[in-house]
Design goal:
The protein is an alpha/beta fold and 380 residues long. Helix content is 45%, strand content 12%. The radius of gyration is 24 Å and the shape is elongated.
Amino acid sequence: MPVSGEALEPVLRLAMVEGIGPARLSALVARFGSPERVLAASADQLAAAPGFGRELVKRLRAAAADEGRRRAREAMETLERVGAVAFTPADPVYPDAFRTLPDPPYLLFAIGDLALLASAGLGVVGTRSPTEYGHRTAVSLAGAMARAGLTIVSGMARGIDSAAHAAALDAGGTTVGVLGHGIDRVYPPENGALFRRVGERGLLLTELAPGEQPNAGNFPRRNRLIAALSLGVLVVEMGEKSGAQHTVTYALEQGKDVFAVPGPIGSPQSAGTNQLLKDGARLVTSTADILEELRGVGHTFAPAGGGPASPANVDVPPPPPPDLVPDEAAVYAALTAGERHVDELAEAAGMAPSKVLAALLGLELRGVAESLPGKLFRRK
């Protein structure tokens, strides 16, 4: 069962010490036998532990005093207020995948369905500033994979992360959001509604104590947990310097498959994914590319909702030709394999209908768009 009450307070006191980290916390508990004994240890006893200097010993002793008790109880009140629970490696719900990490989390906080920690996951990551092509591809793939029974795992960030989480829920599937801040924080602020949805129908998870701000250094470490909860990691649009690269690195270190969606030559948002493909990542142009690989190693997934699995080959848009002018590129990104009226395309592209029609003519001449009666168009 999750840790609570008197058992949680001493663990929280230690976890909230600046500079302690999961590895040091685990080492202290192993050395002294329990969190209570760590708090009762003298400064000399703490200093005798390898890697514990004077400043860290001073902070640990402060955690044993009234101030440490106050901070821990405030954190416990916060957990209760937001409906979160805490658990350690001693709890059966603690993911086995975390136990094999070089620095496994010692204390985890969660809101939602803890059973998802044992489900078959697919990490979906990418840029915080996707193109229309990237956003639509993330929605298409994440939704289809969720319908096929995989839990979509990502980091609740802007862009590809948010698109993947929302698409999984819209498809009737499940999703896990791994946070780089305290369980009581919403970041980015505009994702408030998405946080509520994931907490109600999926799972929010973090190793950071309540109140922890979304500091830049938290996110790379968070990504090791995304990789650990996933059978493989799918990258949809990633620049040359992207936080998603940390997730890829962790996935490779953990022996997981890395999948990448190809992007147009010259697109900054696809520079990283195209490089991944050069380096040997598995090319993805449909969900079949992912499902065949994952199922090929003995995994089976129950379709979301218990119904039949969705078709493997969903509409994943191909990257646009690299030499389109800006208006043509914007309209091409709005086209689908199905019919769309010129007014829909104008709204999606943020352009006047007259400009859209001119761009469509250029796309038709290139053979990548097709006009139909009634001012309807589709990708060819």
